[in-house]
């Protein structure tokens, strides 16, 4: 909810700011609204409280109806995609910024969660055919903490305070334990169970 709130602060205040990158930054904020609701939806289901703008202390957010969060996600991502750069258009020091491919893939995941596989496949095909991403020769490299900057990563968060992550980076203290459990062998531990996992079990 904090991420969603801060993203709406950017979205609503952007029209009052001038600058060449305002549309791109606004689009990144729209992505974060969708990402926040995506994880709320997966973990807690349809009927969580939602907001669609900056809130005041007196506001009482309504409860989402079935499918309403997906509508918000789709709207925000569809608005974001045209204003986001391709991954190759970012400088190396901007690694971790939201790209067009990340937003397209996120929108594809939103469609998949609703069983809209044709729409999802069309978006994933755009990402695959963009020429921006490729599979690594060794899939195990995706699970090593020293190779997170690679052409297979569609969306990666840069947790380092001073630039892009390298072999000398010490990011463990910046990943809070509630987000990623401490692992002794340098592996990631993002283990929040979704309803799908619980129901499957």
Structure explained in plain terms:
This protein has 201 residues and is mainly alpha-helical. Helix content is 40%, strand content 0%. The protein is globular, with a radius of gyration of 18 Å.
List keywords for this structure.
201 residues; mainly alpha; 6 helices
Mean pLDDT: 84
Rg, Cα atoms, Å: 18 Å
Order of helices and strands: HHHHHH
Main beta sheet: strand number and arrangement? none
- Approximate shape: globular
**Structural class from helices and strands?**
mainly alpha
Strand content: under 5%
- The total count of strands amounts to 0
How much helix, percentage-wise, in residues?
40-55%
Count of helical regions: 6
Please render the helix and strand layout as text:
Layout: H1 2-13, H2 22-44, H3 68-80, H4 100-113, H5 117-129, H6 195-200
Helix pairs in contact: 1-2, 2-3, 3-4, 4-5
């Amino acid at each position: 909810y904090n991420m969603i709130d801060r993203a709406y602060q950017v979205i609503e205040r952007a029209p009052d700011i001038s600058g060449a990158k305002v549309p791109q930054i606004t689009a990144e904020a729209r992505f974060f609204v969708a990402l926040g609701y995506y994880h709320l939806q997966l973990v807690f289901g349809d009927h969580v409280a939602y907001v669609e703008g900056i809130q005041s202390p007196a506001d009482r957010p309504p409860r989402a109806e079935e499918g309403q969060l997906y509508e918000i996600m789709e709207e925000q991502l569809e608005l974001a995609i045209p204003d986001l750069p391709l991954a190759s258009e970012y400088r190396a020091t901007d690694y971790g910024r939201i790209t067009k491919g990340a937003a397209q893939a996120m929108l594809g995941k939103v469609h998949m969660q609703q069983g809209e596989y044709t729409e999802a496949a069309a978006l994933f095909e755009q990402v695959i055919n963009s020429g921006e991403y490729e599979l690594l020769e060794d899939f195990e490299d995706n699970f090593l903490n020293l190779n997170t900057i690679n052409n297979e990563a569609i969306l990666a968060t840069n947790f380092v305070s001073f630039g892009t992550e390298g072999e000398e980076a010490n990011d463990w203290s910046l990943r809070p334990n509630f987000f990623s459990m401490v692992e002794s062998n340098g592996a990631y531990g993002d283990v929040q169970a979704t309803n799908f996992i619980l129901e499957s079990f």
